[in-house]
């Protein structure tokens, strides 16, 4: 079998070369960041020789923490970047330690999301979980800084949203006032028209009344009748 193509499964998860790369060479090439080297390995399956045993939710002991195989990379990276993170843990119970580690990984995953995509509930839970983990003995100053940054960015995002909503409401209110003034002008014109119509009708009515109240002209028959009665 080619030395670079070896069987990989849950039972044989570690692979590497016997001869390590000299630290000096890594420093010269600029591969180190804060004197730390993180290597991400991608495995390409050439041939499936043996499925091995089903792992399911089986766990691996990593620095005293029982973690799932799917969590090994995240936990190993966590300890590489923060080697003293669990030095002051207050308890040794494996179940409690595992519970705390799962909570910590979930918290880190939440804070890796963009601030505007984190809900208020998630942010509130993140603050509570950070307090619990800190009280348990984890050194999480770096994570608190990250949480503060996310919280500030979230508030800024909400503030920007509020400003946008205020502008939209102001614009809507402005448009409403314009429409209202148009309605008032139309209504005023209509009122004036009705008042003028009412005035014309009143004048016409007054004329009719005046005409009706004036003495009626005597007819010729009435004149003869009046003269006869006087005789």
TrEMBL record:
Region annotation Disordered: where it falls in the sequence: 172-195
Domain MATH positions: 1-43
Feature: compositional bias, Basic and acidic residues: 172-189
InterPro entries in UniProt: MATH/TRAF_dom, MCC
Protein name: MATH domain-containing protein
Source species taxonomy: Eukaryota, Viridiplantae, Streptophyta, Embryophyta, Tracheophyta
């Amino acid at each position: 079998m080619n030395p670079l193509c070896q069987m990989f499964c849950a039972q044989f998860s570690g692979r590497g070369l016997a001869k390590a790369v000299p630290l000096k060479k890594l420093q010269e090439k600029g591969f180190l960041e804060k004197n730390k080297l993180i290597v991400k390995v991608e495995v390409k399956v050439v041939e499936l020789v043996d499925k091995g045993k089903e792992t399911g939710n089986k766990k691996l002991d990593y620095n005293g923490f029982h973690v799932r195989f799917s969590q090994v990379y995240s936990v190993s990276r966590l300890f590489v970047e923060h080697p003293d993170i669990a030095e002051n843990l207050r308890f040794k119970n494996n179940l409690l330690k595992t519970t705390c580690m799962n909570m910590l990984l979930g918290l880190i995953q939440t804070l890796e999301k963009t601030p505007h995509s984190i809900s208020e509930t998630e942010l509130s839970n993140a603050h509570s979980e950070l307090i619990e983990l800190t009280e348990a003995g984890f050194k999480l100053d770096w994570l608190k800084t990250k949480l503060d940054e996310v919280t500030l960015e979230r508030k800024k995002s909400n503030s920007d949203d509020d400003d946008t909503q205020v502008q939209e409401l102001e614009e809507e209110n402005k448009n409403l006032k314009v429409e209202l003034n148009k309605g008032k002008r139309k209504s005023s014109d209509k009122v004036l028209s009705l008042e003028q119509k009412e005035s014309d009708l009143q004048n016409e009515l007054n004329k009719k009344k005046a005409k009706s109240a004036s003495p009626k002209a005597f007819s010729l028959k009435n004149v003869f009748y009046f003269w006869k009665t006087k005789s």
